[in-house]
Amino acid sequence: MGAPLASWPWENLGTYKYLLCGPLVAKAVGGRAWERASPDHWCFLLLLFFLRTATYRLWGVFTNMLFLNRRRVIARDGVDFQQIDKEWHWDNFLILQLWLAAAALYAFPSLRHLPPWDARGAAVALLLHVAATEPLFYLLHRALHGGRLFADYHYLHHSSRILQPYSAGFATPLEILAISALMAVPVAAACAAGLGSAWLVFGYTLAFDFLRAMGHCNVEVIPGWLFQNVPAVRYLIATPTYHTIHHTDKDSNFCLFMPLFDLLGGTLNDKSWELQKRNSAENVPAHAWCLSIGLGYARAGTDEIPGFVFLIHVVDVTASLHNSMMSRSFASLPYRGATPAALLHWPIAFAVMLAMWASSKTFVAYFYRLRGRLFQTWVVPRYGFQYFLPFAKDGINKQIEAAILRADKMGVKVVSLAALNKNEGLNGGGTLFVAKHPGLRVRIVHGNTLTAAVILREIPEGTAEVFLTGATSKLGRAIALYLCRKRVRVMMLTASEERFQKIQEEAPPEAQQYLVRVTKCQSAQHCKTWIAGKWLSPRQQLWAPAGTHFHQFVVPPILRFRRDCTYGELAAMRLPDDVQGLGVCEYTLGRGVVHACHAGGVVHFLEGYEGHEVGAIDVDRIDVVWEAAMRHGLRAA
Fold first, then answer.
1. Helices (H), ranges, 249-392
2. What are the residue boundaries of the Very-long-chain aldehyde decarbonylase CER1-like C-terminal domain, all occurrences included (predicted)?
3. What are the DSSP calls for 210-231, one per residue?
4. pLDDT tens-digit map of 99-127
5. Exposure string (b/e) for 209-236, b if CB count within 10 Å is 16 or more?
6. pLDDT for 206-240, tens place per residue?
7. 230 Cβ partners below 8 Å, 6+ apart?
8. Residue of 83, 233, 393, 415 with fewest CB within 10 Å of its CB?
């Protein structure tokens, strides 16, 4: 049996835990508590306290704005799925404190009628916070680091490897009860003296949340020049760097918000100010700082240059929310399209879309490590439908080109183009940029060689015939040429006889007979292996016989219309088991799974290939790249 108050009593309820707030909601609704004259108005104000989540969420958004604060990040590793899952119910403490506040209001009815504001009460609360809450927290915190208390309780908070604002509330019930008691001391004393006010209660609580979330945000927000010019200030406010040191050296920096008590207690880490200065941006010239916003530039000596960059774009409006900046929990699960929850957040997603268009800057979305090297994903702020607008072509290419040139300037080794960023009609699969900038040191990779390998490995051994749409695209051409060499009959759906003949002429003379041009889906009504490289409408799918399997490399994926058929996923691969810091699912894919073109760029980087991978796919390299992927621990998803 575990230690008392070491786990939450509603732990097994999952998201149903919010029903615990039901009685208060019912009382507020029944008593029309939103009306100021209602006797239950206090209940409405109490429920407003649950909006405290916004403080932590906004700090969470800021923490993951890597395009803005990339150079001031303290711990330069991503938050992985394990930590996200562990901290999923980080807001348990809010439910507990809500009921503690309700209990206090029932026990002391006079608290329901506090005046709006009393400056004297705020002064008393501030004095008591410094004189009582701060030193008591310091002593409590040091006690929690000793023996059984740490093993039974405080270890949970320290199990978070990378601090996030949500980590502030990730603790055991015993710790939250103790912190709640310390929070109550200044407010209760002011109220007991007849100096309490509604603004004091709300203001003190929100300020407490603000500073707690800031201290855990993993981004240095206090400028170094402040501590240099006014040294005394460093003992009055604990910076994110200061608190991060406590999680790496748990025998120092115990204070709540004021390092003064660590100084008095002899537990101040000597490196606190040096590391804070290094993590702040005071040495960056103003023009360089402005230039870095949205561009992911690295500062020599303080930031690590990524070796690999995967350049993606947003697929649709609601998918813009599927990133760690907006919601790390949402991003840690595969994107499921227009779900009720996604539609509820559609206005926010629309605002994000407008902001991305206005910025017109490539920004860092997330990063991870593999074999000790940094891999980043950048986003071109353009949505899928824009790629099909003729007048948008030049603007999109300029943004992709700008991202490539920035990566080249930074010293990135490989940039892999995702989805529509490598569209043949847009830039010839990246050939446009290679031809325009022949001196590029960064290697441009479309990753389609490995994509073709993944699709081909899905086709069962012994297949004698396949039906292929999108047959004259980069991938379609490579798949057709590979299969015909294996003596597989390929029905290539294309309206262009000229393009078909050109591909047929590339095949060995003895294999050309296995390439057959068709112009209608009816021609494949007896073929049970369909490879969709172009959108297939439900009506077209009806021509497939029962039991057909639809392989596909079309974006977006075809509709799963036929119940008597099976549908493959988009070509994808699972990253090696030693990947670190990955906490984002790539679009609709599962955890640790990336699109094959992403994996193709990873292999290109790990193998150290010197050339670009743009334009037409070299069919002779399909097996070579597949075998390289296997050697590096990637595997079919």
1. 260-265, 272-279, 286-292, 328-331, 340-344, 346-359
2. 466-635
3. HHHHHHTSSB--S-HHHHHH-G
4. 999 999 989 998 888 999 999 999 999 99
5. bbbbbbbbbbbbbbebeebeeeeeebbe
6. 999 999 999 999 999 999 889 989 999 999 999 99
7. none
8. 233
What is residue 150's DSSP assignment? Answer: I
How many Å apart are CA 483 and CA 468, to the nearest integer? 11
Res 303: pLDDT: 62
Task: Give dist(CA 47, CA 252) in Å, integer.
Answer: 37
Helix (H, G, I), strand (E, B) or coil at 378: strand
Tokens 């995702």 sit at which residue? 418
Structure tokens at 16: 């149903």
Helix (H, G, I), strand (E, B) or coil at 367: strand
In order of start, what are the domains of the chain with their CATH numbers? 11-278 (no CATH), 304-445+574-636 (no CATH), 450-570 (3.40.50.720)
- According to DSSP, residue 522 is labeled G
What whole-number distance in Å separates Cα of residue 187 and Cα of residue 128? 9
Q: What tens digit of pLDDT does each residue of 293-309 get?
A: 333 333 333 468 999 99
Q: Where are the beta strands (DSSP E) in 462-553?
A: 465-468, 489-493, 515-518, 529-532, 549-552
Model confidence pLDDT, tens digit, residues 473-509: 999 999 999 999 999 999 999 999 999 999 999 999 9
What percent of the chain stands above pLDDT 70? 96
Tell how strand 529-532 and strand 549-552 pair up: parallel
Axis-axis angle for helices 198-215, 240-248 (nearest 10): 60
Can you give the C-alpha Rg of the chain in angstroms? 29
Q: What is the value of pTM for the model shown?
A: 0.90
